[in-house]
């Protein structure tokens, strides 16, 4: 008989009247790194294709260990910038996210500022056109790569731009205390190195934060103090910093990297409560680092360094965070509830280089989106969706020929994720949980976690109530040892996966048909028929994509056959002349994409700016 364990998720600590009062104030923002692989004359390449992220024995080891990428570009090669940001916002809103916090890097890449401005303005433009209930703030992230004397002027320039452009008075700005919100992040880089070293050693009686606040205030003062500042703590456990911050700013944020240090988060919360300041919390789930660590020196090395010095695979490793499947994510929401944080920042929306994006994607699973939605609903005191989640960590072959991964941050039992599968249920009434068509147990209403031992093979789970199936999951992949890769990836599946996929297919199919129909002007009936073919193509592609991990040749044969069938259907739909034009346009789009990506190094530009150079 299998052993299983049930964990009751956090209880609501506030009374119902208090929750009702606070609900309208609670907001969830996802950090958005305004990353688009784009070529302005050819449109936006929203994501890379599957050939860039799936294993191939013909690739050098470095390319084989690139992280998995979202599947969006496999389904629709290019979008306009407006279409791309529209897709981002629609995806976020379906997850219960209230807005984006644009991470504006103040760094040596000064030439990117104009591009960041254009992309941010595109979000505002689409939000206003569609009247989305969605808002934005900007996170100024100060990087050490920018010359110290230029960091404040750069930040002033950014805020001056957004205080005078055509969206400066937009209703889509996130506001606190009646002012637009700016988050200051990595503020330690507004302190000179020698000065910072001294501060690290000083006690609370001596340390002086005033010069730092003067620099921050100088940025806002250049706009006539139009912005409400959310300050990110350098040392969240130091009382002196929080007391001094409280003299200037009402909202104080803790970095997500501290989330797993429960004692520190509790101390931070108490210090804020004593100062009567607002807790802005940050949450992240498991992530893989963007850098390598050189074993001989124990130094972090960017991809460019590894390539330049041609380091063998056994001389470097990568780090990752082991937050015990969904435990870390749930911990963040529990802390936000316990310590009454009205603002949450999710790390992050589309930092796909680090592999920690919250965007739905094939390899991490669409279930992460729905899980965040349900946790957000619970945190806000809203009625939760009925749903079920199936979460496990992929096991990979350990081989010296493959890149090694080591744990950077650990929360909970280090063996939990390796030895367990989580089944999370969100129900309104008592229901029966079935695993592989056998009754496992009865689950209570609300959010519950059941763990079962890790096992290989095809596993299906279902929730039944009064003999009716109310939720079910049949994972796309079998659970098995991966021989090709060694990444410690966590997979999230949910009973809503198919719904997410269908909604994505519908939106992307409409974009594809609209792109071509500008030339053809087909009648409505034919456009709808074409849209159905596009959705079928996308659905079939997702179904066979899982083959690539286990049988590359079978994937290629199956995908080729599906493509031929799809093209025949389009051939019958269009006239011969239009069909030739369609094929030419397809080839043109593919050529642009291949040309754009040919010499593109995804790790260039500080391992964060995944953007093509302007043409």
UniProtKB/TrEMBL annotation:
Signal peptide: 1-22
Gene3D superfamilies reported in the protein's UniProt record: Glycosidases
Keywords: Signal
Name of the protein this chain belongs to: Uncharacterized protein
Annotated source species: Flammeovirga aprica JL-4
């Amino acid at each position: 008989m299998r052993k299983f364990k049930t964990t009751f998720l956090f209880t609501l600590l506030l009374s119902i009247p208090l929750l009702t009062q606070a609900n309208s104030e609670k907001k969830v923002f996802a950090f958005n790194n305004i990353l688009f692989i784009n070529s302005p004359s050819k449109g936006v390449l929203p994501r890379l294709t599957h050939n860039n992220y799936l294993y191939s024995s013909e690739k050098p080891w470095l390319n084989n260990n690139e992280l998995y990428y979202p599947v969006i570009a496999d389904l629709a090669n290019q979008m306009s910038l407006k279409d791309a940001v529209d897709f981002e916002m629609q995806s976020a809103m379906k997850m219960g996210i209230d807005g984006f916090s644009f991470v504006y890097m103040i760094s040596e890449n000064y030439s990117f500022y104009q591009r960041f401005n254009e992309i941010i303005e595109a979000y505002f433009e689409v939000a206003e056109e569609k009247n989305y209930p969605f808002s934005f703030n900007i996170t100024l992230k100060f990087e050490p790569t920018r010359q110290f004397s230029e960091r404040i002027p750069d930040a002033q320039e950014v805020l001056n731009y957004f205080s005078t452009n055509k969206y400066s008075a937009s209703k889509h700005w996130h506001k606190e205390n009646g002012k637009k919100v700016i988050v200051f992040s990595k503020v330690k880089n507004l302190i000179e190195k020698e000065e910072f070293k001294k501060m690290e050693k000083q006690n609370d009686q001596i340390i002086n934060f005033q010069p730092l606040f003067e620099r921050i205030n100088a940025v806002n003062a250049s706009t006539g103090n139009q912005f409400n500042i959310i300050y990110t703590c350098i040392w969240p456990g130091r009382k002196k910093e929080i007391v001094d911050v409280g003299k200037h700013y009402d909202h104080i944020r803790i970095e997500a990297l501290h989330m797993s240090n429960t004692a520190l988060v509790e101390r931070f919360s108490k210090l804020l409560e004593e100062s009567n300041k607002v807790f802005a919390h940050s949450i992240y789930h498991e992530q893989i680092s963007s850098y390598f660590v050189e074993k001989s020196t124990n130094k972090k090395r960017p991809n460019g360094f590894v390539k330049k010095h041609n380091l063998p695979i056994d001389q470097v490793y990568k780090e990752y965070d082991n937050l015990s499947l969904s435990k870390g994510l749930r911990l963040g929401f529990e802390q936000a509830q316990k310590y009454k944080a009205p603002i949450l920042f999710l790390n992050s929306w589309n930092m796909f280089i680090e592999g920690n994006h919250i965007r739905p994607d094939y390899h991490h699973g669409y279930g992460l989106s729905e899980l965040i939605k349900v946790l957000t609903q619970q945190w806000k005191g809203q009625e939760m969706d009925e749903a079920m989640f199936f979460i496990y960590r992929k096991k990979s072959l350990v081989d010296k020929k493959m890149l090694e991964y080591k744990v950077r941050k650990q929360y909970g039992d280090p063996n939990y994720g390796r030895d367990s599968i989580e089944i999370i249920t969100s129900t309104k009434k008592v229901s029966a949980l079935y695993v592989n068509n056998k009754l496992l147990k009865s689950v209570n209403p609300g959010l519950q976690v059941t763990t079962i031992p890790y096992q290989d093979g095809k596993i299906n789970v279902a929730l039944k109530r009064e003999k009716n199936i109310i939720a079910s999951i049949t994972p796309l992949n079998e659970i098995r040892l991966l021989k090709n890769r060694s990444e410690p990836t966590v997979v999230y599946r949910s009973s809503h996966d198919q719904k997410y996929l269908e909604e994505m297919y519908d939106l992307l199919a409409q974009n594809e048909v609209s792109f071509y129909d500008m030339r053809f002007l087909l009648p409505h009936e034919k456009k709808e028929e074409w849209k159905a073919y596009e959705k079928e193509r996308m659905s079939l592609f997702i179904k066979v994509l899982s083959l690539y991990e286990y049988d590359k040749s079978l994937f290629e044969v199956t995908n080729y056959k599906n493509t031929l069938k799809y093209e025949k259907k389009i051939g019958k739909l269009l006239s011969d002349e239009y069909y030739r034009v369609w094929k030419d346009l397809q080839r043109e789009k593919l050529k642009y994409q291949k040309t754009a990506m040919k010499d593109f190094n995804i790790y260039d530009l500080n391992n964060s700016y995944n953007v093509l150079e302007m043409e």
